[in-house]
Amino acid sequence: MAEEIQLLKGNEALALAAIRSGADGYFGYPITPQSEVMETLMAVEPWKTTGMVVLQAESELSSINMVYGGAAAGKQVMTSSSSPGISLMQEGISYIAACELPCLIVNVQRGGPGLGTIQPSQSDYFQATKGGGHGDYHLIVLAPASVQEMADFTVLAFDLAFKYRNPVMMLADGLIGQMMEKVVLPEQRPRRTMEQIKEQCPWATWGKPSSRKPNIITSLELDSKDMEQNNLRLQKKYKEISDHEVRYEEFETSDAEYLLIAFGACARICQKAVEEARAQGIRLGLIRPVTLWPFPYKAIAEQANKVKGILSVEMNAGQMVEDVRLAVKGNVPVEFFGRLGGIIPTPDEIVTALKEKIIK
Amino acid sequence: MKEEIIIAGFGGQGVLSMGKILAYSGLMEGHEVSWMPSYGPEQRGGTANVTVIVSEDRISSPILNTYDTAIILNQQSLDKFEPTIKPGGCLIYDGYGISTPPQRKDINVYRIDAMTKSVELKTTKVFNMIVLGGFLKVRPIVRMENVILGLKKSLPERHHKLIPMNEEAIRVGMDLIQKMN
């Protein structure tokens, strides 16, 4: 039977998709613009149906460490917050990455730095893709650009997290979180049974049988020789993820003379900018990185050889543009256009910036 | 068909819910829709606005520079959005509290005194549905039967008994709207 089409906010779609993904637990602390995530979960009361735990912690530090504990036990757990709250979680995120635990962390970004504004922003790109916490680790970072993707990526994120035993971040923003669009929710998956967890997560701390040694989840290794090996193991995994999990979308690139690069909400606005530019006779295309880490360096490098110039469009002061320049290696001019502090660029501002900075 | 609409007024006038009912009606019609609100402190007594797009084709940006139709419920919003209407587009405004009426000659201007009418009928709660009725009269992008289905979808079940009252308000609005140029 065809699933019902619903009209939902991005935050609501995320919450409902989490239940349907078979999640075992959500731990969070309210913050605008993502409060509807926990509000929706509390209204739907999944603990009465699937048995999923929904818990409002006393702080973001508690939330992320509850996720740490749940994930260590092999459970499918998640948290969500917005920029200042995600900053508070960074210590826990580094520990989770070090311990190779699968989980989902959602950042519905607002404008920073500091407490900043509650309006949409993409200024946590560096934090999400270049570390955030301490140490040589990577999160898999997915950037949804629609309400449908808020739902679909929730399921994808958990699949990737368990496939690679790695935390996944969904890097959304206030625009995608707050807007309503048509969405078809994923099918309900059953929560995994204890037997399935034991089989799929033999590393997890689900209770020691007499037949084996205890599983120990720790990031601490005082012997540098062993710690280097731990790091090399992580780096090997990151290489494998980089080789297999790059995702991106192209719009109108086949005959493009100029190229926009944008992710998340900005990619939606850039699609309209492409339409406007083409109406004026400018052959403009768009590449939208879907995974921000691993970043689609190769796809951008290939397209760069065919165009006269590239404009990276972001709701920040120029963060992803650094990765675009790494990809392009100086072969064509790469410029940046962005709005800051919660201001959303309009399509005609983008076309104007393209003319001023690239076409000239 | 693609209709790009901005609805703007004071917080509490039902701007966001009018947009939501319109978006749901579009959904019932089988169209693509998007609903992008202004959110945050401005909802509490300041100005509130929502961008609604109803389209037969996939919707790219939920954020726009210009609009086919602006539905305006206070002076600040009129000052802000009158210049953003596409030439040949449509401006619908409630006359209540408007000291400087619209000036543009290259758009179709309609006035609907929904606030005055809703006070007169003692139905201020459906003020926004009177305005929606006016809009649907001049821009019939969704059929009445789908508006009713949209109302059913967007109102919680315990409020479904209020649907006939909302339907009546939409019909009042359809009769009330008048062209100004």
Describe it.
Chain A is an alpha/beta fold and 360 residues long. Chain A folds into two domains: 5-194, Thiamin diphosphate (ThDP)-binding fold, Pyr/PP domains (Rossmann fold); 249-359, 3-Layer(aba) Sandwich (Rossmann fold), CATH 3.40.50. Chain A is built from 14 helices and 14 strands. Chain A has helices spanning 10-20, 35-44, 60-72, 83-88, 90-98, 125-129, 147-164, 174-178, 194-200, 224-244, 264-279, 297-304, 320-328, 347-359, and strands at residues 5-9, 25-28, 53-56, 77-81, 103-109, 140-142, 167-173, 180-184, 248-251, 258-261, 284-289, 291-293, 309-314, 334-338. Chain A has a seven-stranded mixed β-sheet, with helices on both faces. In chain A, strands 9-11-10-13-14 form a five-stranded mixed β-sheet, sandwiched between helices. Chain A has a two-stranded antiparallel sheet with strand order 1-8. Chain A is globular, with a radius of gyration of 21 Å. The relative contact order of chain A is 0.13. The mean pLDDT of chain A is 97. Chain B has one domain (2-179): Pyruvate-ferredoxin Oxidoreductase, domain 3 (3-Layer(aba) Sandwich). Chain B has six helices and seven strands. Chain B has helices spanning 15-28, 75-81, 114-120, 127-138, 144-154, 163-176; strands spanning 2-10, 32-37, 47-55, 67-72, 85-93, 108-111, 178-179. Chain B has a seven-stranded mixed β-sheet, with helices on both faces. The mean pLDDT of chain B is 93. Strand 8 (180-184) of chain A pairs antiparallel with strand 2 of chain B, so a sheet runs across the interface.
